[in-house]
Amino acid sequence: MRQYSLIAPAKINLYLEIIGDRPDGFHELAMVLQSIDLADKIDIKAIGIETIVVRCDHPEVPADSGNLAYRAAALLSKQFPDVFARYGGVEITIHKRIPVAAGLAGGSSNAAAVLVGLDMLWQLGLTRSQLQELGARLGSDIPFCIAGGTSLGTGRGEKLSPLQDLEDLYAILAKYRNLSVSTPWAYNTYRQQFGDSYASDLDNLESRRQRVHSGPIVSAIAHRDKEKIGQLLHNDLEKVVLPEYPQVQKLREAFAAENVLGAMMSGSGPTVFALTESRERAEEVASAVRGKMADTNLDFWIAKFNPSGITLA
Ligand code: C5P
């Protein structure tokens, strides 16, 4: 085969706790990550010349090394220079549906698709964990995006423990088109404001990690208790993003005032989501919040929880 098309789903965080600082400058996290069926499509095609070409139908997505998908291809071409020379480069076409810089791991999922697609195109025969290890070098969310489903993520977010798949849950997502939040800004601001409460020694770090492993949200997921999951949604980054972006705070309040399982900001934002048990209810909530906010800059999506990460289209 000279060409593959892959589906690259977005993710939301059902839980994001910042535990402490890491020697590598990142944060030690405990997260619950969930794939949703709002997805990009990625076409990967062998071309005759030894180069990497990225095309995207979205004007804000860079076509060079500023794009994680490009960096994923560059990393593999460096790791396997003979294969790169033999197959003669690659053209990556990104059909964007996931909003950009939104806290939904769109760029990470595109990079995950490139790793999975190039492994097939170049017949590298890498295992999933080898692909995840390569992905982790490029971004903390990429290993999860490869596997998808429902997972507990610790470390930088790259150490994954799969959890029970959650079926028949729907997310209504909303994002202001002209608003994006810098992830490094969110984490650095959190460190400035809450660094005092960080776990400071290894024992403390491990016990905080264990607390999440055996904690209420993991138990609610194991029991598929949707009401509990909704009540236990948690994201530490809301503490810095919501005060800085009052319109995101208002959007979250508008969702929470509806009859939903729960509402929260995803990742470092600014996307806000609410959970429901049916698509019909999700559509009612979207239209109620759209009416209440009455802002033409506000985009809405309805997505179903997805049991997998990168798959062939
Ligand atoms: O790994 P990724 O590129 O997604 O991280 C983006 C930024 O988010 C990092 O540069 C860092 O500032 C912050 N981050 C962090 N700790 C993590 C993950 C991300 O501090 N575990």
Pick out its properties.
single chain; 313 residues; alpha+beta; Ribosomal Protein S5, domain 2; Alpha-Beta Plaits; 2 domains; eight-stranded mixed sheet; 12 helices; 12 strands; 39% helix; binds cytidine-5'-monophosphate
What's this, in brief?
By secondary structure, this protein is α+β, with helices and mostly antiparallel strands. It has helices at 68-79, 81-87, 106-121, 128-136, 142-147, 183-194, 202-213, 216-222, 226-232, 238-244, 246-256, 279-293, and strands at residues 3-21, 27-46, 52-56, 90-95, 150-155, 159-162, 170-176, 234-235, 262-265, 272-276, 298-304, 311-312.
How does this structure look, described?
The longest helix has 16 residues. Helices cover 39% and strands 28% of the residues. It starts with a strand and ends with a strand. Strands 1, 2, 3, 4, 5, 6, 8 and 12 form an 8-stranded mixed β-sheet that branches. Strands 9-10-7-11 form a 4-stranded antiparallel β-sheet, sandwiched between helices. With 313 residues, the chain is an alpha+beta fold. It folds into 2 domains: 162 residues, 2-Layer Sandwich (Ribosomal Protein S5, domain 2), CATH 3.30.230; 135 residues, GHMP kinase, C-terminal domain (Alpha-Beta Plaits). The site of cytidine-5'-monophosphate has 11 residues, from strand 2 and helix 6.
